[in-house]
Amino acid sequence: MTGRIWLRRLWPLAPIIGSLAITSGLLLLFGVSPFEGFGALIQGAFGTQAKVLSVAAFWVPLTLAATGLVVAFTAGLWNIGVEGQIVMGAVAASWLALRFDAPRPILLAAEILIAMAAGALWAGLTALLKTRGGVHEIFGGLALNNVAIILTNFLISGPWQPPEGGTFRGTVPFPDKALFPLLGESRLSPLSVLLTIVAVAAVYFILRGTYWGLKLDALGRNPRSAFLLGVSSEREVVFAMMFCGALAGLGGAVRVLSWFDSLRQSISGGIGFLALLVVMLALFRVILVPFIAFFFSAVLNGSISLQLRTQLHSSLGGILTSVLVLLVLLFGDYRRLGLFGAREGETLADE
Amino acid sequence: MNELEWVRVLASIVLQATPLMIAVCGETITERAGIVNLSLDGTMLLAAMTGFVAGLLTGSVWLGFLAAALIGGLFASILAFSAIRLRKDQFAVGFVLTLLGEELSAFLGQNYSRIPGESVTHWGIPILKDIPILGRIFFDHDPVVYFAYVLVGFTWWWIFRTQAGLRLRSAGDRPETGFARGVDIQRLRYVYTIVGGALVGIAGAAYSLDIKLGWSEGHTRGLGWIALAIVIFGGWSPIRGALGALLFGASKALATVLQRRFPEVSVVAFNATPWVLMIAVLMLVGSDLSERLIVLAPERYRSRLRHVLRVSAPNALGKPFSPGASGEG
Predict the structure, then answer these.
(1) Buried b (16+ CB within 10 A) or exposed e, B149-179
(2) Which of B95, B273, B309 has the highest number of chain A CBs within 10 A, making it the mutation to test binding with A?
(3) Same domain, residue pair A322 and A301
(4) B122 CA to chain A: closest CA distance, Å?
(5) Which of A79, A142, A221 best tests the B interface by mutation, with the highest count of B CBs <10 A?
(6) In this structure, is residue A258 part of a structural domain?
(7) CA–CA dist B181, A202 (Å, integer)
(8) Using the beta-carbon criterion (under 8 Å), do A316 and B107 form an inter-chain contact?
(9) Is residue A290 part of a domain?
(10) Is the separation of the CB atoms in B229 and B282 below 8 Å?
(11) d(CA B85, nearest CA chain A) in Å
């Protein structure tokens, strides 16, 4: 029996080992030794102080979007549109940065607010399409993601193109005072880290200690009985989505005002989809989100260095993270599998 | 535009719609069995890459299609196992598979990007292709297009006109009833999910080996999601689904025509058409909008219009099924 209990205790490591094994296999397939590959990946993430700061800078919008998604998921909503909400936040912040002039603190505050509003409105549109239009949020969100990306391309190649001519690269760099103050030479803004910590704490508090959090939870668990108990599902759906959209929009502002210094073609670059993976791996618990987001950020930044070092496509990092999430989803719970003499429904306390 | 040009545009719409028709048929039978395979976009990308590379290495497009079908079936079997045996959230697993398929296609296909490869050869059907106008539009293509026609008709006949189709629909609509009548619901769901996935794989290869030749990163990105939306718009019927695919093809062709007519409007603005159209058609079939439009019509057409516009999903779509306490979990 003791062997079984040890296996049960160690089981959470199985998905990690499995995903490392699969990515190692892919590295070998392309003639790179896994030691060299993962070495380059870790070096790329943590090798120098600048690289650690870069991981942290990427972590900020990822954590913001994932934190918002926890709220949407709690209400039972699949906000795939988070990617578009990040983009719209970036677009709105860019508009202010390009077109308006004000003292720095006022300009920054206005940029943050308008980015959050734009993300919230874009999410609210998805929510209304769901409640009023009968369009599932997966399809509404996905379509609006593409519309947002197309809008960005339109702005970059049209009204906001640099004076030297239309490129698909991006707008002119924003004036310094429109950008977040950065830490040294890095792309990390302490202000955005502070806002992220506040967001995580706020969501933790909302879901744990407020009536609204309780209503969202009821809606997510069973929409029909929540309705019978008097939870207005439409209002909660719209608000939960808009809350998520506001945080995603803030993430978009961070992308243009500190990671870049202008509006670029792929301004989000898949952060929204990555955030969905983060939340799934965190089992929808906000307190785990910052840690998992940090791990993902390290893998993704590391795999870009891996590409520079070994000429292998940087999608290896994405493969590692999505295989990990897939294995956790499938095999994370050994009780479902009936392994090690466990029955389904049995809890850890039964050991 | 003269007549010849119109015929050419219509023929290109049919050609563009072909892979979507195949993918929509695959997903339709999967969803009719009660399983949502959300991984279409990633599966199609990975299958497009696999089909292209397999075709290049073996020198045979048909082996390319076979490899793509196997990859599609493999991805679908992961989803089927998680949904049926493990009773996991189908959206979650499907979404992760979407991302995984996309990343894998980028990684595994990195050395095969933007190089010439195999392609399906043009073959007009003798006699039929000489029918005025219609011949040029429908029968002057290649075997993959004709396969799509046959598949749409066959799938429709299978779902609505056979005993097996009745069992298939029972698995998605009322699994308890089907089970009580001796249908092995779980096995049936496995079969249709995997066959559906294989068809999605073929659809992916239909792009890289035929309609949108070659491979580069993100080659078919977005089209899997379009196919998923068309399944809903098609009311889970292959023939309506095929019409949806043609409508999508038509919107793309229309955008091209409009772009030529109004060159001052930015090119990228027209790229938004399919997505706006996607929201519009889903609203049309999903909300009471259709009912409001129907009452505007003359009374004698209303019931027929209702029949055309209204759709309803299989009742047990996306819900795990437990065949009683004695069955497997």
Answers:
(1) bebbeebbebbeeeeebebbbbbbbbbeebb
(2) B95
(3) no
(4) 34
(5) A142
(6) yes
(7) 53
(8) yes
(9) yes
(10) yes
(11) 9
Q: How far apart are CA B290 and CA B276, in angstroms?
A: 17
| A167 and A298 both lie in a single domain | yes
Collect all residues of chain B within an 8 Å Cβ-Cβ radius of residue A80.
95
Once rounded to an integer, what is the mean pLDDT over residues B149-167?
Answer: 97
The closest CB to that of A154, out of B89, B268, B285, belongs to B268
**Overall domain count for chain B:** 1
Asked if the Cβ–Cβ distance from A134 to B283 is below 8 Å, we say yes
Interchain contact, A325 vs B96, CB within 8 Å:
yes
CA-CA distance, A242 to A251, in Å (whole number)?
14
Establish if A42 belongs to a structural domain.
no
Spatial distance between the Cα atoms of A117 and A112, rounded to a whole number of angstroms: 9
Task: Give the distance from CA B71 to its chain's centroid.
Answer: 16
- Kindly state whether residue B126 falls inside one of the protein's structural domains: yes
pLDDT at A351: 34
Task: Give the percent of chain A with pLDDT over 70.
Answer: 93
Same domain, A348 and A299: no
ipTM of the complex: 0.93
Q: Is residue B287 a part of any domain in this protein?
A: no
Q: Is residue A72 part of a domain?
A: yes
CA distance B101 to chain A (A): 9
Asked if A182 and A293 sit in the same domain, the reply is yes
- Are A104 and A126 found together in one domain? yes
Do A82 and A141 share a structural domain?
Answer: yes
Asked whether the beta carbons of B125 and B146 are under 8 A apart, the reply is: yes
Q: Give pLDDT tens digits for B187-210.
A: 999 999 999 999 999 999 999 999
Can you tell me the distance from the alpha carbon of B164 to that of A53, in angstroms, rounded to the nearest whole number?
60
CB of A146 closer than 8 Å to CB of B275:
yes
B24: in domain: yes
The answer to whether residues A299 and A317 belong to one domain is: no
Domain count, chain A: 2
Range of the domain at B126: 3-220
Q: In terms of pTM, does the model score above 0.90?
A: yes
Residue B235 forms part of a structural domain: no
Contacts of B181 (CB under 8 A, 6+ apart): B170
What mean pLDDT comes out for the span B62-91? 96
Q: Which domain holds residue A81?
A: 57-311
Nearest CB neighbour to B286, from listed A133, A147, A323: A133
Asked if A159 reaches chain B (Cβ–Cβ under 8 Å), the answer is no
Contact (Cβ atoms closer than 8 angstroms) between residue A249 and residue A124: no
Count of C-beta atoms within a 10 Å radius of residue B182: 7
Summarize pLDDT for B83-137 with one digit per residue, the tens: 999 999 999 999 999 999 999 999 999 999 999 999 999 999 999 999 999 999 9
